[in-house]
Specification:
Elements: H1 2-30, E1 32-39, E2 58-60, E3 69-74, E4 80-87, E5 95-99, H2 101-106, E6 114-123
Parallel strand pairs: 1-5, 2-4
Antiparallel strand pairs: 1-6, 2-5, 3-4, 3-6
């Protein structure tokens, strides 16, 4: 009888592990979005109430909760940076995120001003619709 229990236990564990791995893959896919990013000159305060800091690795997004961490990858050169959402925007049509100057420098988009990016939530409760192909 003990042999049967241990085989069932081992089989049950394998199913749990596989299910957990599938769940993580779906979450990662659902948390990525592609679109255009820009960088912006700073005012005095962010929408979250923080003092603006052009060197900070931060960004503005229309709907992600403040504090959400997002990896932003420049699709033209493969460089990426993790930023924290602390402001609202962008307010220019066709753009999905506005980066601080410091974050834009990290992914090499200062001169172009706009870049096609892939955003992936890496921390916090924010969710993005999956639209990258």
């Amino acid at each position: 009888m003990g042999f049967v229990k241990s085989r069932i236990g081992a089989f049950g564990m394998a199913i749990v592990v596989c299910t957990a791995m599938v769940g993580l893959a779906s979450q990662a896919e659902a948390a990525s979005q592609c679109g255009k990013a820009s960088w912006y000159k700073m005012g005095t305060k962010t929408a979250s109430g923080e003092k603006m800091n052009a060197r900070a690795l931060a960004a503005a997004h229309k709907s992600l909760p403040f504090g959400t961490k997002v990896r932003v990858e420049n699709l033209s050169n493969g460089r990426s940076v993790v930023v924290r959402i602390n402001d609202r925007g962008p307010f220019t049509g066709g753009r999905v995120i506005d980066l601080t100057q410091g974050a834009a420098e990290k992914i090499g988009m200062i001169n172009s001003g706009v870049a096609r990016v892939k955003m992936t939530v890496v921390g916090g409760k924010g969710k993005l619709s999956a639209n990258c192909s």
